[in-house]
Amino acid sequence: MKKMTDELYRDFFDFARFPMLLVEEDTTIALCNKAFEALSGYTSEEVQGRMSWAEMVADPDELKKMREYHSKRRLEPGSVPEEYEFQMTDRAGNRKYIALTIAMLPGTKRSLAFLQDITEKKKSETWYKAVFENTGLPSIIIDSDTTIIKANTEWTLLSGYSIEENEGKLSWTSFVDKEDLERMRDYHKTRRDDASGAPRKYEFRFIRRNGEVRHMINSVTMIPGSPYSIASLMDITDLKEAETERKNLEDQLQQARKLESIGHLAGGIAHDFNNMLAAIMGYSQMVQIKLKGIHSSLLEKRNELLSSLDGPCRKLMETGVNEKDSPLAGVISAARECISMAEEEMGLASAADEMVDEVIKASQRAGDLTRQLLAFARKQTLSIKSINLNSVVSGFEKMLRRTIRENVEIGINLAPDIHAAEADAGQIEQIILNLALNAQDAMPDGGKLLIKTGNKELDVHYAKKHEGIIPGLYVMLEISDTGRGMDKETQQRIFEPFFTTKDPGKGTGLGLATVYGIVKQHLGSIWFYSEPGKGTTFRIYLPRAEKEPERCREVDSETGASGTEMILVVEDQEQVRKMTSMMLKHQGYSVLEASNGHEALETADNFKGVIHLVVSDVVMPGMNGRELYNELLKKRPALKALFLSGYPMEIISHHGILEEGYNFLPKPVTIEEFTRRVREILDKNRNINIC
Q1: How does 677-688 read in b/e, with b if 16+ C-beta sit within 10 Å?
Q2: What is the pLDDT of residue 77?
Q3: DSSP-H helix ranges across 153-236
Q4: Tell me, what's the pLDDT at 276?
Q5: 330 vs 159, higher pLDDT
Q6: Measuring CA to CA, how many Å separate 5 from each of 1, 10, 116?
Q7: Quick check: 70 pLDDT over 60?
Q8: DSSP secondary structure code for residue 103 in this structure
Q9: CA 424 centroid distance within chain
Q10: Mean pLDDT across the stretch 20-49?
Q11: What are the residues whose beta carbons fall under 8 Å from the beta carbon of 380, sequence distance 6 or more?
Q12: How far is Cα 324 from Cα 5, in angstroms, rounded to an integer?
């Protein structure tokens, strides 16, 4: 019976599917089965009693460790692991990964070893580990409780924690921004119930060890048949910033286009409105002149009547005759009635004069409004020169302090080495005034207003982030306040004409629109920064001038406004043409009229005398004012010209900048300003340039 049992055990050992060894205390292999023969390539005759298992261990470090285990196991079996892995070299020299399980035979020094070839499994693990480690993306394997089980090198670089600090110790939730955490947890839970119930890819904000926030796309895949998932992250922070930058540039472009469209509309309205204002103001001034003439005439007649009555009335008093009984009674009564009527008419004339004066004032205010519209539309005429921005600010400071409330502290910080700027000094003053008034309104309880100047180089990097900027050298004007600041919604509309946050009747909404138009017309740029409760800062960059500012020259002598010269008036608007001619005739000038360029050429050809000056509108049907003047000069080379227009429309000037040699007045214009300018142009020896 015992013999049969031994044979059964022997057969079980020999034909077991797992390679098995019976090992002596000295490491000699006492027995091996057929599965081991197939694994090692050795026969049982070559192995049993002849070979040590140590001869098959490929790695010296593993052999040393295994020998220690072999010795300790016989002294204290529980002190060493029963299972471990090692690399074995077979008869052909091939290395194989082996999973080894060892059990001591009770009452002996022998051990029974079970071997499993895990070479293919190890290769797969190596491949998967290589892929996991070298995927190029921060990746982790996550347990169902959110613990990080495995992390690759890219993850450690991203997180700022080492492999040892990550694996088995940290949760992925510790890296998620608080605002994204709840959503991420919901995805994590849903994915384990139904993988299709949560998105495979989504964005969140990743918090690094140093507190830096990075924008990531997370791609998550469940490992089949396990509670684990693999998460791979892609850093899209730079992409996000580029997208934000692109969006900002698009917004800036859309805003610029919207403002450009509004500008075209505003410019067109202002041009037509200015023509109407020119007629209203001109005729009103002529009426006012007539009324004053009537008043003066009535006053003269009244005084003459009073003087003529003085003698007869005194004689009656000397003789003691009652006025009613005098034969002159009827004459005296009639004279007094005439005096009374004259005084009444004088009063009516004075009242009418005051009303006309109000019409003129209203026209002037309307003219100011249209000039602001033209400034926004970038269609006003500028006198661009090389200026010292510090001098402009310093010269305007006194007026600014008189204008701004006393509870607003004004600070001036001027760069000592300021470069010259290409600008119209008067328009720069307008910018300062508009921004200062805006700042004052933002500080009802007082505050600080700071005006700074400086030199600035705007590089390519800055230009890429700010639509319309050309890299180069600029002169900066900065105006800051400590006021209420602006929210995002207000900031998006501040340069729109007629947009205002003030109460009805307290603002036109054209202040910042005017500033925007002036800056753009100067080929400059304007940017601002503001937060609610933290004030506002405007920075204006003006092109740097190549030459230093010129000193102003003084006028040699006074010029009168009247004259007798022949002037050709060319204007397609009949009301404006007649009004302009009336103004000139009133001052003693002779006038020829034409309604367009072709008619003007014909009129000039038919007139054989000298035409001293042509006063022409700029924009007319068929032939514009400058083209007309160029044609007239061919036959009358000494002819001078004065151009009038609601706006120059880039015909008389480039981008609205007045070219040297052309005289220009914007409509509407007062009779005094118009006739004075006419006289200055005609008196060429006295026509000295004024800065």
Answers
A1: bbbbbbeeeebe
A2: 74
A3: 153-159, 163-166, 178-193
A4: 73
A5: 159
A6: 6, 8, 27
A7: yes
A8: E
A9: 24
A10: 90
A11: 371, 374, 517, 521, 647, 656, 666
A12: 178
Give the residue carrying structure tokens 């899209």: 236
Tokens representing 313?
Answer: 């009335």
The partner residues of 613 in beta bridges, in order of sequence, read 567, 640
Cα radius of gyration rounded to whole Å, the chain: 50
3-state secondary structure of 357: helix
For the segment 570-587, the average pLDDT, to the nearest whole number, is: 86
Mean pLDDT of the chain, nearest integer: 79
Q: Which amino acid is at 329?
A: A
- Which residues does residue 87 pair with via DSSP β-bridges, in sequence order? 97
Q: Are 509 and 431 in contact (CB under 8 A)?
A: no
Give buried/exposed letters for 517-553 (b at 16+ CB in 10 A, else e): bbbbbbbbbbebebeeeebbbbbbbbbbbeeebeeee
Mean pLDDT of 59-66: 88
Query: What does the alpha-carbon distance between residue 382 and residue 602 come to, in Å, rounded to a whole number?
Result: 33
> Tokens 């035409």 label which residue?
611
39: closest CA among 109, 114, 121, 110?
A: 114
Least confident span in 458-467, 496-505, 630-639, 652-661: 652-661
The helix (run of H) or strand (run of E) holding residue 680 is helix 671-682
Q: Please determine, for residue 500, whether its predicted confidence score (pLDDT) is greater than 70.
A: no
Beta bridge partners of 457: 473
Look at residue 240 and tell me whether its pLDDT is greater than 70: yes
Model confidence at 649: pLDDT above 50:
no
Residue 292: enclosing H or E segment and its boundaries? helix 237-319
Least confident range of 221-235, 364-378, 565-579: 364-378
| 539 contacts 476 by C-beta, under 8 angstroms | yes
Encoded tokens for 406:
């006393």
Which pair of tokens denotes residue 366?
């309307």
- pLDDT of 181 above 80: yes
At 535, is the secondary structure helix, strand, or coil?
coil
In a 10 Å sphere around its CB, with 0-12 CB exposed, 13-18 middle and 19+ buried, how is residue 505 labelled?
Answer: exposed
Q: Are 537 and 479 in contact, with CB atoms under 8 Å apart?
A: yes
Q: Which of 397, 391, 402, 485 shows the shortest CA–CA distance to 438?
A: 485
- The predicted structure's pLDDT at residue 558: 41
Q: Residue 94 is encoded by which pair of tokens?
A: 């091939």
Q: Give the position of tokens 């007026």.
A: 399
pLDDT band at 552 (very low <50, low <70, confident <90, very high): very low
Tokens encoding 187: 């995805």
Q: From CA 38, how far away is CA 134, in angstroms rounded?
A: 36
Q: CA-CA distance, 639 to 631, in Å (whole number)?
A: 11
Residue 124, both tokens: 């797969």
Q: pTM for the whole thing?
A: 0.41
Q: How far apart are CA 602 and CA 623, in angstroms?
A: 13
Asked if residue 571 has pLDDT above 70, the reply is yes
Contact 115, 18 (CB under 8 A): yes
Long-range own/partner contacts, residues 459-467 (CB < 8 A, 24 or more apart): 464/245, 465/245, 465/248, 465/249, 466/249, 466/252, 466/525, 466/527, 467/249, 467/252, 467/253, 467/256
The token duo for 499 is 């947009």
Cis ω before 497 (30° cut-off from 0): no
Instruction: Report how far Cα 449 is from the mean position of its chain's Cα atoms.
Output: 23
pLDDT tens digit string along 386-431? 889 998 898 888 878 878 888 999 999 999 889 999 888 878 888 8
Q: Which of 470, 454, 277, 488 is CA-nearest to residue 368?
A: 277
Amino acid at 525: S
Weakest mean pLDDT among 144-148, 159-163, 488-492, 542-546: 488-492
